[in-house]
Amino acid sequence: MGCIERRERTLDKYVEGVYKSLVEKDPLQKEFHQAAYEVLATIEPAIKKFPKYQDNAILERVVEPERIIQFRVPWKDKDGKIQINRGYRVQYNSAIGPYKGGFRFHPTVNLGVMKFLGFEQIFKNSLTSLPMGGAKGGSDFDPKGKTDNEVESFCTSFIMEMYKHIGQFVDVPAGDIGVGAREIGYMYGAYRKITNLHGTCVLTGKGVVYGGSLARTEATGYGAVYFCDEMLKTKKESMKGKTALVSGSGNVAQYAVQKLIQLGAKPVTLSDSDGYIYDPAGIDEKKLEYVLELKNVKRGRIKEYAEKYKGVTYEAKKTPWGVKADLAFPSATQNELNEKDAEILIKNGCIAVTEGANMPCTLEAISVLQKAKVLYAPGKASNAGGVATSGLEMVQNSQRYFWSFEEVDAKLHGIMVNIHKAAYDTAKLFGEPGNYVMGANIAGFLKVADAMIAQGVYA
Ligand code: NDP
Ligand code: 2IT
Predict the structure, then answer these.
(1) Closest Cα to atom 31 of ligand 1
(2) Please, which of 21, 135, 186, 195 could form a disulfide with 101 given CB 3.0 to 4.6 Å?
């Protein structure tokens, strides 16, 4: 089992051995196999070029998490009944800095999902150029439909164990699916109460009134659009007038839409796990304001958008990839865009697919897009703006200071331009110009691998 059966490339013996071994050790972790395969297959030219990585068993080491924490999370529901969920933190790699990466609360969370996300995070964080190692955590708890009190009970219990494993020099978590401003607030409160510590950066994505960074909320979506803009420039194209499909309607999708509007593009779709809306007139600032209220305050469903605005259609149980558009920003979840979707996008004239989510395109979809010469940005490059701005939150907290929205946004923009350049130049250097997957993976990997070698076998 695993993606190796569907491979396009013939793997070198060493790389293939590492892949086979990780599949054999954990045969059920299919999302992890997928993420690992994508990285291993594309960094192979660098492994061949520099024998030191094989000599130092870097691949065998980098695919194995440094530490996995798994624990019981008991909490009380609104009827006073005790519920049990499972909590995780995969502290994957700390060669270049303290562990860093979000918490995801979603019923689909399991160890394989945590490992895929933690593994991706290593290379993403390296690409930001900030000193952050890779980690991911979370729980199979579903905040959807829960009362604020239930969410608080869960978050407090989660931190009663997690506080032992995190800290500004150890591991600095943040949000991800199902973990936004409300959840980070409860977790930060619990951490502060238990440890009596304040003013150190133990979590990012904090509210601005208690140490958060301006523009962190916007950063992932903005960053994805900045990255797409850079890709378009390589083809002498621009955002202006382009129609864009966005999936999801959470944090990443919301601010991808906002930046698209600001740069003169026309976002026409949003979705959630129940279906998608198509607004041919385009989602403008006013309609986006409604979405922010609907999703972040009322915690409603995207279907309601189609009930509020004229000329908008809602398709239940479908993804938006069949709508004709120039650009696509999959920004909901893993494997939400498959081979067939990619073919339809191409048929409809799509010129760029930029991942806001982590691993939203299947390996087969990536291959179809790349063969058709569609600009394709892998999430670890194009959604790195979120964690990069988390890194900037850490910097501001260390200084006991804050920067203006414009200062943070300008730094975020600069980081996204640099990530694009690193991925673009590295792909060219290794003989596959335009292959952002290869470029991002090799550029992210080399720094981590060299840090591991420098720190010796036991680090
Ligand atoms: P949110 O929880 O804010 O929003 C998630 C959105 O995706 C919701 O609209 C949700 O719909 C939808 N969704 C979630 N799971 C599924 C599913 N299984 N099938 C269909 N739709 C689904 O999360 P974010 O916006 O923060 O995260 C979205 C993606 O971006 C994730 O892949 C995340 O890992 C990635 N990411 C997030 C970063 C951040 O800073 N927040 C940084 C980098 C990447 P519903 O309400 O129905 O569940
Ligand atoms: O996938 C990701 O990069 C995130 N969810 C953000 C992590 C962070 O530490 O800000």
Answers:
(1) 357
(2) 135
Say how many Å lie between the CA of residue 274 and the centre of ligand 1.
13
- How far is 359 from 302, CA to CA, in rounded Å? 23
Q: What is the pLDDT of residues 418-433, one digit of tens each?
A: 999 999 999 999 999 9
b/e map 332-363, b = 16+ CB within 10 Å: bbbbbbbbebbeebbebebbbbbbbbbbbbbb
Taking each helix axis from N to C end, the angle separating 384-398 and 405-429, rounded to the nearest 10 degrees, works out to 130
pLDDT at 9: 64
Contacts of 162 (CB under 8 A, 6+ apart): 69, 71, 87, 89, 137, 173, 187
The single-letter code of the amino acid at 77 is D
- C-beta separation of 60 from 53 below 8 A: no
Q: Show the CA angle centred on residue 350, arms to residues 229 and 411, nearest 5°.
A: 15
* Confidence band for 8, pLDDT divided at 50, 70 and 90: low
Active site residues: 136
What domains are defined for the chain? 1-64+435-459 (no CATH), 67-202 (3.40.50.10860), 218-377 (3.40.50.720)
The pTM of the full predicted model, rounded to 2 decimals, is: 0.97
Calculate mean pLDDT across residues 436-456: 98
Question: CB 185: neighbour CB atoms within 10 A?
Answer: 20
Which residues sit opposite 337 in a β-bridge? Answer: 361
Please give the structure tokens belonging to residue 253: 């999708």
Residue 42: how many CB atoms within 10 A of its CB? 22
Under a CB-based contact definition with an 8 Å cutoff, are residues 184 and 143 in contact?
no
Q: Which ligand is nearest to the CA of 359?
A: 1
Q: Check pocket membership of 180 for ligand 1, CB cut-off 6 A.
A: yes
Number of helices (H), then strands (E), in the chain: 17, 13
Answer whether 174 contacts ligand 2 (Cβ < 6 A): yes
Task: Return all residues near 367 (Cβ < 8 A) that are at least 6 apart.
Answer: 8, 339
